[in-house]
Amino acid sequence: MDIGGKKDDKDNRKKRKGKEKVEKDLDEEELPRNKKYMPKTERIDRFAIIDNVDDVELARLVWKHPVVGVVPVWGDFQLYRQGIYKPPKSSESRTYPIYHAVLIVGFGVDEHGNQFWIIQNSAGLTWGEGGFGRLHRERGGRKSLFSQVYYGEKKGYPEKDK
Predict the structure, then answer these.
(1) Inter-residue contact 85 to 71 (CB < 8 Å)
(2) Does 62 share its domain with 7?
(3) Alpha-carbon dihedral angle through residues 138, 139, 140, 143, given to the nearest 10 degrees
(4) Are 137 and 78 contained in the same domain?
(5) Are 22 and 57 contained in the same domain?
(6) In this structure, are residues 100 and 55 in contact, taking their beta carbons and an 8 Å threshold?
(7) 57 is in which domain, residue-wise?
(8) How many whole angstroms separate alpha carbon 106 and alpha carbon 52?
(9) For residues 106 and 83, is the Cβ–Cβ distance under 8 A?
(10) Which of 47, 62, 98, 112 is least buried, going by the fewest C-beta atoms within 10 A?
(11) Are residues 70 and 101 in the same domain?
(12) What spans are recorded as compositionally biased (Basic and acidic residues) (predicted)?
């Protein structure tokens, strides 16, 4: 691998790691050749970006596969632990939002009829509900809280119903 114009070798990797606790580096020759350990990969045909996100269309996409969504969040987002997170409206807040990318993996409705998106955050397992969270979704609304959505497309996936 080439990093910053320098060939990446084991000595350089060790220098970059410093005092971090990391697992042993595996050379390609050391990887198990048993197929059950080899990850399955696919190539995508196109990378799609949606700027004017429609919640109804977003739900159709998420039903097929997870997508990446960019959402405005405030400082309280990093403190989220459980429940449905509802960001303040811009007019209610004295600060500006940070736009943060999350993986949208599903959607649902709680026992009170509140709709939400199920998201996975990059902050790790200590954030939210084991690394996942529920983000407020407007009832019957078409305008989404997400400012952008990104996803890969592959011809023939998902397969058409027969």
Answers:
(1) no
(2) no
(3) -10
(4) yes
(5) no
(6) no
(7) 46-153
(8) 20
(9) no
(10) 112
(11) yes
(12) 1-12
Range among 6-10, 15-19, 20-24, 124-128 rated most confident: 124-128
- SS3 label, residue 1: coil
pLDDT at 103: 97
| Cα 53 to Cα 50: distance, rounded to the nearest angstrom | 6
Query: Which residue in the block uniquely carries the two structure tokens 């609304």?
Result: 141
Return d(Cα 80, Cα 86) in angstroms, integer. 10
Closest residue by Cα to residue 149 from 80, 76, 62, 74: 62
Could you report the per-residue pLDDT of 118-133, keeping only the tens digit for each? Answer: 999 999 999 999 999 9
- Please write the tens of the pLDDT for every residue from 94-116: 677 889 999 999 999 999 999 99
φ/ψ region of 136 (left if φ > 0, alpha if ψ in -120 to 50, else beta) reads: beta
Looking at the structure, tell me whether residues 146 and 100 fall in a common domain.
Answer: yes
Collapsing DSSP to helix, strand or coil, 79 comes out as helix
Residue 161 lies in a domain: no
DSSP 8-class letter at 10 = H
Is 0.90 topped by the overall pTM?
A: no
Q: Look up the CATH number of the domain holding residue 80.
A: 3.90.70.10
Q: Are residues 123 and 64 in the same domain?
A: yes
Whether residue 63 is found in the same domain as residue 32: no
CA distance 113 to 137: 11
